[in-house]
Amino acid sequence: LDDEILQDERVLWSCQPSLKRAFRRGLPLVFFAVVWLGISSTIAVAIFRDANASWFAKIFIRFFILIGLVMLSSPLWMVQLAKNTVYIVTDRRVIILTKGTAIHIQSFGPDRLAQIDKRVFRDGSGDLIFDRQVSTHYSKGRQRESVKEIGFFGIPHVAQVHTLIRDSLQASKT
Hints:
alpha+beta, four-stranded antiparallel β-sheet, three-stranded antiparallel β-sheet
């Protein structure tokens, strides 16, 4: 972190995402994984009971079961990602620092923070969305778009952090 913060830059706020919210973000995939595993397991039983089933079918179905188990554990992956993420607000910018096989740093200055979307939950925590990346892909001749939101997720006192960012950006312009 010290390498990323400039010498005359001040850290005003830092936080890690809520682990509880990170866990919840992985739950929709769990429901899909249960269905996936139910179907895969049923097919696996049929394949392994069939004496004439090919070795390829026996290996192939194992991959489907493995994929289902990975999807089933998605809330744990989301928690691990949250543990390796730090959100920082300085007097000049906001920073998202994520540690994985390498440290990934996303920095948003005043020019990229003109529009901040805020989601507030009942307990006052929430998300601040700084950017959205839209990906277009084609499947079966149809165009599909997926949107990845970039921002601070599952932070406490989201309204206060939003105000802090807005005020620090206005102060940095003067």
